[in-house]
Design brief:
Number of domains: 1
Subcellular location: Membrane
Transmembrane segments: 12-38, 59-79, 139-158
Keywords: Lipid biosynthesis, Lipid metabolism, Membrane, Phospholipid biosynthesis, Phospholipid metabolism, Transferase, Transmembrane, Transmembrane helix
Oligomer: single chain
Order of helices and strands: HHHHHH
Largest sheet: none
Protein name: CDP-diacylglycerol--glycerol-3-phosphate 3-phosphatidyltransferase
Organism: Dictyoglomus thermophilum (strain ATCC 35947 / DSM 3960 / H-6-12)
CATH architecture: Up-down Bundle
Distance between the termini: 36 Å
Number of strands: 0
Length: 165
């Protein structure tokens, strides 16, 4: 175990206090969410800078992101903040890209994070924060993140799908 992997595991478990606090103290829930997102930035920075990149980290990091974001989005659906179809489409994209990633790994190809995927993550995180703090434009940002989510999923398959078919 190294520090980047520990930060990634912490991010996974931060989902629980974030969700618990949503209805009790949404402001604090948002602060914890910002800290969780920061661990994503920090673990990558430390791993690259100190050459602590590991196979476990390559697997856990995107998984931690999905657990955090999708866990919160599913809870938002339960709270009836928006329609389940939004989360279903996001889940579909995430499962498809994860399947692509696993298929490529079997062929010795590592699927890198593309700019479209990073942009998707930014908008998802920002829209979640707006929902946590009940700020304006949250639904618009969620829709932008949904479009970017679907676009980036199609783009991953466009760029790397030929490697598995």
């Amino acid at each position: 175990m190294n520090l980047p992997n520990i930060l990634t595991i912490i991010r996974i478990f931060m989902l629980f206090p974030i969700v618990i606090l949503i209805e009790v103290n949404a402001f604090l829930s948002g602060i914890l969410f910002i800290l969780a997102v920061f661990t994503d930035y920090l673990d990558g920075k430390i791993a690259r800078r100190y050459n602590k990149i590991s196979d476990l980290g390559k697997f856990l990091d995107p998984l931690a992101d999905k657990i955090l974001v999708l866990g919160i989005l599913v809870y938002f659906v339960w709270l009836k903040y928006f329609s389940p179809w939004i989360v279903i489409l996001i889940l579909f994209r995430e499962f498809m890209v994860t399947g692509l990633r696993l298929s490529l790994v079997q062929k010795g190809i590592v699927l890198p994070a593309l700019k479209s995927g990073k942009l998707k993550t930014f908008f998802q995180d920002f829209s979640i924060l707006l929902y946590l703090w009940n700020l304006p434009f949250k639904y618009i940002l969620l829709m932008i993140s949904l479009v970017l989510t679907l676009y980036s999923g199609f783009y991953y398959f466009y760029k790397y799908g030929k490697e598995i078919f």
